[in-house]
Structure formats: C-alpha cells, structure tokens
User: Fold these one by one.
Assistant:
Number 1:
Amino acid sequence: MDVVTLGPDEIRSAVSMSAAIATVRNGFLALHRGEFEMPTRTVLRDGGFLVMSTHHRPTASAMIKTLSLDFDRVPAIAGTVVWSELGHSRQLVADATEVTRIRTGAVTGIATDLLAPPEAKTCTLIGAGAQAADQVRAVHAVRPLTELRIVSRGLERAEALGKSLGAELDLTAVVLTDADEAVRDVDIVCCATTSTKPLFSLESLAGHAHVNAVGAFRPTMRELPDELLAAATVVIDEREAILEESGEIIHALAAGTITEDDLTELGTALAEGVTKRRGRTVFKSVGVAIQDWAIAGLLARICFDRTK
C-alpha cells in the first residue's frame, strides 16, 4: 500500500488559497447534485472529539477526518485527514489542523464572492485564533482588501496577526477592542470565535454588509444576533449539519425569528443563484466533510501525480 503523509508546511506549500476556493466550490456544486454520501459528523465529549466522513460516488473516493479540540492548548485543533479511493490501494494522510484552516477559509471565500458587494474592500475580523488568518486570505482572494480591522480578547495576538497580514497582503490593519465600533461601515465581517453570545448588534452593521460566521460549531455557541438573521439573506453550508449544530440558527428558529424556508444551502445558491436577496447577507458554516474531501483530493492528485 502506497501511503503519503503530509505535514503543515507541505500542505501549505502545495495548496494556494485560489486553488482551495476553486476545488471546494466544485465540491459544494457536487453536493448539490447529490453525488455524496455524507453522514452528520460524530461529536464526542461535547465537541472535544469530532469524526467526519464522506464518500464521492462518481470517483469512488472517500475521506475520513478525526479531530480533537481543546481551545486551551496550541494548536487547538489536532488530528488527521485520510483520503482513499477504491481503484487504488494508495492513501493520503494529512495534518488536519492545516487542512481545516485552508478549507474553512476557502468556503468563506466562496460565500464572499457570491454574496459580498463587488466593490467591497474593507473587512472586520472578529477573533485572532487558528482560523483567523485564512479567513482574511480567502476574502482578499475574491475581494482585494485595502483595510482590515481586527477585534480579539488577546490584543498581543491580534496585533501580531495584523502586522503579519498587513505585510503579506499589502493592506492597512488596525486592532480595535469594541466589536460594534469595528464592524461599523465595513463591507465584510468575518467571525471566527467560540463565543456563546452575539458579538455585535444589527444596528452597527452597514446596510450592504456581508457577514461570514464560521467559529461557532455547537448548539451552545452563538456569534450572530437573531435580528441580523431575520433582516438578512442567509446562506448556510449544509442544512442537516446546520440544524444539528449551529447555535445561531437553532436559537433563531426556536425564537420564531426565522423559518427553515429562510435558509439557502451554499450549493443551491451557487447552482441556481440567490433568491429573495436583502441588503445584508450572512453565510453561516459549521464545516462539512466535503470541504475536507475537496482539499484532500487536491493534495492526493498533486502527490500521486508526482510519484508516478
């Protein structure tokens, strides 16, 4: 059996953000066409361990990811992504931390390209943890940014991230402490936290703002206010996963603020366009296995082509 193992540096050097966005986008279109078997992920120890899997019928390929999550350690996410296919005995084993960062960024890039104003150039990032940098890289790939505002409880970490991204992407980055002030008048907001309560108020957002929320992944977590979900066009990654895991959506549905009819899956929006569009837009993601399958498959094609 041919096994290729990839660490963080090898993954990062092999996959550009533009390539990640393209391959994950194709994955969501394939999900819309019904090409995947994708069980809802297994959650153990109240989110301490996650197992995600999917099978792509047309290519007879599959991906299984196992994670442990502890936000008091560095890195907070640790695990492996295993990609295999029926036609070959070869397998790819990749570091799950790096794959998760890239694929989470990629889906934000896809949603931002679909939903944000074409002329958008300012962004507020709330959270400066492991997922934060790739959120900005992905937004910048589809909407070249000139200004970045960062809000985080860890000021030193936020300042270091702002300095790094400012140099890498050639933009102005500033660190603020008040989220409501930080989101005021910006075009795009990215939320990448594990907050259990809304991060800002609806009134603070510009009428045209697009919001990505990728941090909260358990029913007990919430990054967005109900009022925003009620006033915005809401696109989600995958319905079953969202209804099981998204604290924002679960809370808003229970409160009667929104209905399931207000939710459009990303694959549907990409294939058919966005209907009933309102001024503000929201993309809510808890992360689904086809994102990891897409990045792992791209890595496998690169690696196995090289080993021929």
Number 2:
Amino acid sequence: METPGNLEAHRVDGSRPSDAAVDLYRRLSADIAAGVGVVSSTLRNRDYAATVTGFLSVSYDPPTMLVSLYAESRIGEAVEEAGVWALSLLSGKHQGAANWLASPGTPLQGLLAQVPFRRGPATGSAILDGALAYFELRTVSVHQAATHLIIVGEVLSMGTDAAPAEAPDPLIHFGSSYRRLAP
C-alpha cells in the first residue's frame, strides 16, 4: 500500500512513475547534501557555464571525474560537443555567481560578464576566481541517463585559487537551498 511518504518509483511492469512519486523524489533528493560547482566550456568562441551539484571524483589514477548535466541544456550540448570543460568548486563567497548561473533563461551573450574568471591553461574554459578547487577535463565518455548526460572526464589540469582562509567555507546545496559550513 502506498502512502504519500512511501511511493514506488517504477511499477513492476516498467510503467512510468506517478506524478506523486516524481514530486516525492524531488523533495527527498533535495536532502542530499552536495558541493556546488560551476561547469564551463567554450564552443565556437562562446562561453557556456552552469551551476551544478551533480559531480563526483571517480578515480585517482588516472584522475577522473564525472558531471551530470541536463541533456537538452546549452551547457550539456556545449560540453558534449567541445570535448573539454572545467569544473570550479565554489566557496560561500560565490553564492551570487551560483544563483546567476543556475537561473533559467540566462542570456547567451555576456553570460560570464558579471562573474570574475580566468581562462584555464589546458582547455581555455572559464575558471571562477577564488575557486576552492578547479579541474580542467577532457571528455572520455558520455552516457545518457534518463533526462541527463553523465559526462566522464580525465583531468588535464587542476589547482586552487582560494585564499587559505576560504578553504573551510565550501558552498553546499541542501534542502533546496545553498548553505555554508562557516558561520
């Protein structure tokens, strides 16, 4: 018996989940604490960037990461086509940039005009100034997963631009909003 707090996502017969199951999944999965980053890429001399919380370190040897991007998004298409991208991990001071780059309908022209960044040495992708860590990656595989692309990349370059005092202040996403560890 299903209750509003306990729903099956898929039926045994493989049918699609109910609207109630999708809504419950959204609410419950919002309680997964995640770091906040910005994925960026350049395609045809145009910058693309978006705020993400779906990224993961896959392997240390060779250094490999993955990111989950909405398949029909501009950033998903740009990263897939360009084949190189960057991931900047954000500190609490980046909350404004995170909000801006997570907003639907951000302009294509001048997307990064209000976000301080520099070009990465290996890919030319945007790396946000003061990033706790940054990784430049070359795509090694792309996997379709429901509405998203899982993009796996081998790290070409990495480092940090954060001041030592900012390191203990990562921007976190939890409960459908941004949080900070530092007071």
Number 3:
Amino acid sequence: MIRSHCLIVAGILLVLIASSGCIATDENTRLNLTFFDVGQGDSCLLQVDGKTILVDAGPYEAGPKIAEWLKARNISYLDVVIATHPHSDHIGGMPAVLRQVKTGVFIDSGDTHTTPSYEVLLKTIEKYQIPYRVVHEGDQIDSGPGVNIRVLNPDTTVSGDLNDNSIVLEITSGSRKFLLMGDAGISVEERLLKEGTDLRADLLKVGHHGSRHSSGRRFIEAVSPEIAIISLTAGNEYGYPQKDPIRYLTDAGSRIYRTDQKGTITVTADQKGLVVNAEMIPKSAPK
C-alpha cells in the first residue's frame, strides 16, 4: 500500500528522470562531493549550481548528524534523495534526514527488504508525501545545467542480491567524471565492462566499503581513478578495506581517502582540478 501510494504521487515527476537523452554540461561548472563519516555505512552529498542531491544516509545513528550538518550550512532543501539499496548501513539514517530537511523526490531501485529500517523509511516517505521514483540502467537524474547524472545499475532484470542491485551513478561535469558504486560487486563491474561502458573516472566511490567482492582488477584498471573514496569505520568486523582492492587502486596510481582515517571528506571539482579537504567531525555532533 505504501509503495503504491508513493508511485501514484510520483507520476507527476516524470520530468525529473528521462530514460534517454543528455543534459548539457558546462566547462565552468564547479561541484562539491561530500562523503560523510557515518561509521560503517555510506552517505554522499552532491552540491552543484544551487542543487543538492543526497546519496544514502548511513546507519540509524548517522541520520541526525547529517541533518545537523546540513542545517549548519543553511541547506534546508534536498532536491533529490537517493537510496542505492535498502541495507540499513545505507538507509538507516534516511528517515531522520527526511523528517528534518524538505525533500523534492526520493529515488531508489524498487528493490524491497523486510527490515524495520526499510519499513520506517517507507512510512516516512508516505507521511511527508515525498514523491517517489524508481530508476534503472540508462535513466537520467535531473541535476540542473552543467551536470549529467546517469544510472548505470541496476539492470532492468534485477538479481536477487541487494548489493548487486545497488544504484550505480555516473556523474559528468564537463571533462570530469565520478562513479558512485553503492555496494555493487564484481558481477556488476564485469557486466559494465562487457557492455563496453566507458568507465574512466576522476573519482571513484569504492564499492562495498573496500570489500574484496567488489573493485576487481579489470574494473579498477578501466576506471583508473585519480581519487578513490572508501567509506567505513575503523576496526570493523568485516576487515574492510581488504587487501585486493587497496592493491589494485595503488597499482592504478589512485590517491586513496578513507573516512575512518580522514573523517568527512569533501572533493571540490572543476575543470582545473580536484581539491580534497577533510574534517574530523566529533561523533556527538557534526559541527
């Protein structure tokens, strides 16, 4: 019932996402990508030309901190909120953000999950009457002039694996390109390689927190990122980041930035280059 209601509401927003075509880019566009230190989870904020797009919101405890960080910077509206997939380390903090920051549209892959965190998220979307959209490979997400956001995954035929059904985003601004991999694994990477997708990117948000089940050698060689961001917590029970992804990224000449070491990481990008800044936010409050 909740999902049906959201889909009906979303009908008026077809203009936001086109299944084909391109958005013109501007060589002078400047954008910020902020990768929040959310512990063992993922959250990234894209800011460009007055628009704000939040991709994931970490685990439950991260939500209030992200909302406070946004308010401290006078960000009172999110044009788009994207859940890459319904695991709690990516969506647990999202209800807190949606309650406190007005949101234009909520986007996910249409994948469902039988967990309390996912149910709370759906109820929050319904309560605040946030328009809801599903995207798949080939869809475009409107980010205004100067930036093109293309969905590379999931395929229209989704697998039974929530991680491999993650929304993968290709963000292009002029000659700059950024890949946000969610928790997509090697099978997704291999599909993209097989399809002949041009994967070269200046920045890679490394898939699945640096797990060996993502970031295969062939994929990293194809992307060859100048900067690689890994979002995770120190001493996590999974042993992330694991050796293989780190080795492949190092061999590719990538500069690796980890939220467990650097805290919240902001990358400012324009056609002149990429500038990386980090801020160690106190765990009690993201001032």
